Amino acid sequence: MKATFPNFGYETLALKTFLEKLGASVVLPPANTKHTLEMGVKYSSELICLPFKITLGNFIEALNRGADTLFMAAGAKKCRFGYYHYLHEMILRKLFPRFRLYAISQYTPYQFVFEKMPQIFMVSPTRVIYALLILLAKCALIDDFKCQLRLARVLDFNQANQIEKRAIKLIESANSISQIRRTRQEIRTIFSINGKKPEIKIGLVGEIFFMIEPFANQEIEKELSRLGALVVTKRSLFRHLKHLLKIDWEFYRFSLLAYKYLKDSPGGEAIRTVGEAVSFAMSGIDGIVHIYPFTCMPENIALEALEKASEDYDVPVLSMSFDEHTSRTGFLTRLEAFVDLIKRRKRERGR
Amino acid sequence: MNEVDNVGYLGIDVGSISTKGVVIDKDFRIIAKTYLRTQGQPIQSIKELLTKLSSQVDRKTKIFGAGTTGSARRLAGIMLQADIVKNEIIAHAIAASYFHPDASTVIEIGGQDSKIIILRDGIPVDFAMNTVCAAGTGSFLDHQATRLGIPIEEFGGRALQAKNRVNIAGRCTVFAESDMIHKAQLGIATEDIISGLCDAIVRNYLNAVAKGKEIKPLILFQGGVAANIGVRKAFERALEQEIIVPDHFLVMGAIGAAILAQEATDSKKTRFAGFEIADIPFQSRAFECEGCPNRCEVIETLKEEVIIDRYGDRCGKWSEL
Known about the structure:
Order of helices and strands of chain B: EEEHEHEHEEEHHHHEHEHEEE
CATH architecture of the largest domain in chain A: 3-Layer(aba) Sandwich
Number of domains of chain B: 3
Helix content of chain B: 25-40%
Helix content of chain A: 55-70%
Number of helices of chain A: 15
Structural class of chain A: alpha/beta
Largest sheet of chain A: 4 strands, parallel
CATH architecture of the largest domain in chain B: 2-Layer Sandwich
Oligomer: heterodimer
Structural class of chain B: alpha/beta
CATH topology of the largest domain in chain B: Nucleotidyltransferase, domain 5
Distance between the termini of chain A: 64 Å
Largest sheet of chain B: 5 strands, mixed
CATH class of the largest domain in chain A: Alpha Beta
Number of domains of chain A: 3
Distance between the termini of chain B: 35 Å
Strand order of the largest sheet of chain B: 3-2-1-4-5
CATH topology of the largest domain in chain A: Rossmann fold
Radius of gyration of chain A: 20 Å
CATH superfamily of the largest domain in chain B: ATPase, nucleotide binding domain
Number of strands of chain B: 13
Strand order of the largest sheet of chain A: 2-1-3-4
Radius of gyration of chain B: 21 Å
């Protein structure tokens, strides 16, 4: 079996280890590029969201590299993401004669451990649980790494990019609990650098694929730190997995915070987006950037709720939607203006 | 600071349709002001602008700071060796709050984009820009004026002569244009159609750009389209308030850039290369990098055949000179 799955930011490394622990040999799609997007756009319907187009492009490129078994997450509660795997399969069948696609439902952890994974990989549930633990540990490691990276980028942008490369090599080779623990320490050591303290802090919220995959969000985290803003987020695959296993305690707090603005979930991660934003606002953050795919229904509803929250807490919010037509110049102009606005506001208030 | 010299600050706003420039003194009074069409050749028009500005400035005035803004701000910044390169939102906000400290809303409609800036106590607190559509911006008005054979300067005035209200479809320039043609074929007077178009532009602006923003007085109207009296009146009808068009509405972005240049050079020496750069050959060219499938479009600027700037690559292999 040559297994593959769509690129998912830095977290790709953790998902790869997970499949390897179950005995699969993994063929990763090449890193996301313009070509990936072109392939995805070519075979997708115009109005479908960018995550669909990018993941379809990933599958096409991975199949071209010799992958034969595709894994795709499924189920998103009231969001069309739930049927993306059917669409992927229908489109890909016309292009490639031989492959299998497994849809992994996110909301049935019991079935996942005791039925689905053992059947696909011919392994015992114990082994699945072990692989899952490694996955969680590695996701936590990556979470930690990303926090270090965000701070390092505002302190010294160029040096942070150098360290990032070294850190990724370390993460790649950490495949057991003890190695992961050691790597975590090592990464913290190499990231200890000095620099100018960031002037402002910006909370990033939005749709999960955009929060995790830098290619989709035009590397917004990098751009914000280049402008001198420290980026903070409360979204990662680690937190998402905890959420699915129902052990993400902070999520319950987010739901409560969001309740004033969204009584019921409109699907996707809208509740979480709003809850995180309110929690950032309460902690006195300088600004919030909200990112989501163009035509995303849940996040469009979250946007309305965020506008209300922005007024209530007096926190500037910048909402930006993306698709393959998003102009980079327009994107950068908005981001720059937003950061300038926050800096000026803070300076005036400081007086 | 040398006492004999008069202090001047240069601000340049290079937009898609027009290039604007001002020189202001240390009390922000305008010494020189120029406006010309970019005509798709920003380098040429920046040079022309500098020549015109320098002829308006007397010899005793020295430039102590230079700032650029507009969609070609980066290119202009490199050519001028500007002290500050700032986006047009902040530049417009700065100029607006300088001339009208009590302004709360700035409506800015330029050649290719339109924006709203919300000010509170003179500080910009919120903004929005048109995202995917250029409906109702200057270039669309330009196109319609040409199509109807009316000089753009008279276009707005004709709207005021309208006798009846005609509804023109807004939302998209394609719909608006076909609706205008349709109404004309029905025999409706051109003045009425132009007035309907002004209303449609305002409706589109309020629904798409200013959506959800609290439009409080004082409202300023800046940018090229502010010259159009028809659009201004349509805004007044829709908002039921007086709209103020500042004296220097065309060059507000440039004034903002000049004020920012003064801020940036406060007790520092300027990097400005001087008006002489109008005579130096500059060149800008683009190529597609073949290093990876991203195929980034890299743009380089040459000064006297020497590469002085490169950008556009994601990985940084070209931008590090």
